[in-house]
From TrEMBL:
Protein name according to UniProt: Galactose operon repressor
GO terms of molecular function: DNA-binding transcription factor activity; transcription cis-regulatory region binding
InterPro entries (alphabetical): HTH_LacI, LacI/GalR-like_sensor, Lambda_DNA-bd_dom_sf, Peripla_BP_I
Record keywords: DNA-binding, Transcription, Transcription regulation
SUPFAM superfamilies linked: lambda repressor-like DNA-binding domains, Periplasmic binding protein-like I
Gene3D superfamilies documented for this protein: 3.40.50.2300, lambda repressor-like DNA-binding domains
Ranges of residues in domain HTH lacI-type: 3-59
């Protein structure tokens, strides 16, 4: 039986796409000279057809985006939509054939996928199922580096420290926090919000952490509204003078609750949100927010895939910084 590209890829330990591009003399491929020569050596030893080597067309690499949200929920969370758009834009630059799968529906993926970028939060079981499909696997907004996988994440610790400092420098030391609880789609793992961990650490360093000022919703606008209503009811006159809220939809809901209770923002309560999607500017007053470069997160994930396809085997973790955008909700 004649040798195939897959035979060569298996023996050299690189992807099928890498073998195809090397044998077709694709000089734009970023691969070491040693790997390139090994591919040719193995091809010759296995007597891979030279005529086939020169006539086989270079096919577009297939990149799957696995999204933990449903397509309808993504419409309500511009954060993950923006990450996906960043992936698709950079993927187009690299001429990937991109397919999307929502709610981790792996059975909808083709079996010949070259790479996967997973957006969201995933259980070990879900990670394992993706790793069985391809070694070229990158996680965005989910730190799977300890498990040996490429990861693109946000520096939540420093971002939270910046917000606490922002209020502290304005003599506001009673800072409430509203975040959410989520489960992976297979209900195997409860997701811990790293913003809460950062907030707690920052407040404890200042000997100011009060668990009664922490309220937990589910990242929706409705839950932000309900959690602020709960804060108003349980805290009364002891309501904090500032709240840090884990995403823009919840912050918009919290703002609505304060306005319904005739509590002035920012005069009585200042609000600082996280993510800085367009929603932050669609409410009144506009929300101060931690700006996360979501499109860069997506583009960085694609860059990691490109280097994986070029033969890189060592896992990488890319942590992107943030910046504070001050608007009327805190001024």
């Amino acid at each position: 039986m004649a040798a195939t590209l897959k035979d060569i890829a298996t023996e050299v330990g690189v992807s099928l796409a890498t073998v195809s591009r090397v044998l077709n003399k694709d000089q734009s491929l970023s691969v070491s000279d040693d790997t390139r020569q090994r591919i040719f050596d193995v091809a010759d030893r296995l007597q891979y057809s030279k005529s086939k080597r020169h006539t086989t067309a270079v096919t577009r690499k297939k990149l799957a985006i696995v999204q933990w949200y449903s397509e309808s929920k993504e419409q309500d969370d511009l954060y993950y939509m923006s990450i996906r758009m960043g992936i698709e834009q950079r993927g187009q630059q690299h001429q990937f054939e991109v397919t999307r799968v929502f709610q981790n529906n792996m059975h909808k993926l083709d079996t010949d996928i070259d790479a996967i970028i997973a957006i969201g939060k995933f259980s070990p079981k879900q990670v394992f199922s993706m790793a069985k499909i391809t070694d070229n696997l990158v996680f965005v907004d989910d730190d799977q580096f300890d498990a040996g996988f490429d990861s693109v994440v946000t520096d939540f610790r420093l971002a939270t420290e910046k917000v606490v400092d922002y209020f502290w420098n304005r003599d506001i030391q009673d800072i409430g926090f509203i975040d959410g609880t989520e489960m992976t789609t297979d209900h195997e793992l409860e997701v811990v919000d790293r913003r809460l961990l950062g907030y707690r650490a920052a407040m404890e360093r200042r000997h100011a952490f009060n668990p009664k000022l922490v309220f937990k919703g589910d990242y929706t606008s409705e839950s932000g509204f309900k959690m602020m209503q709960k804060a108003l009811k349980t805290l009364g006159d002891k309501l904090p003078h500032a709240f840090f809220i884990a995403n823009d939809p919840m912050a918009a809901g919290a703002l609505k609750a304060l306005q319904s209770a005739d509590i002035k923002v920012p005069d009585r309560v200042k609000l600082f949100s996280f993510n800085n999607t367009t929603l932050a500017t669609f409410v009144y007053p506009e929300l101060s927010a931690v700006n996360v470069d979501t499109e860069l997160m997506g583009a960085t994930a694609v860059d990691l895939i490109v280097s994986r396809l070029a033969g890189r085997t060592t896992a990488q973790r890319v942590e992107l910084g943030t910046s504070l955008v001050e608007r009327d909700s805190t001024k």
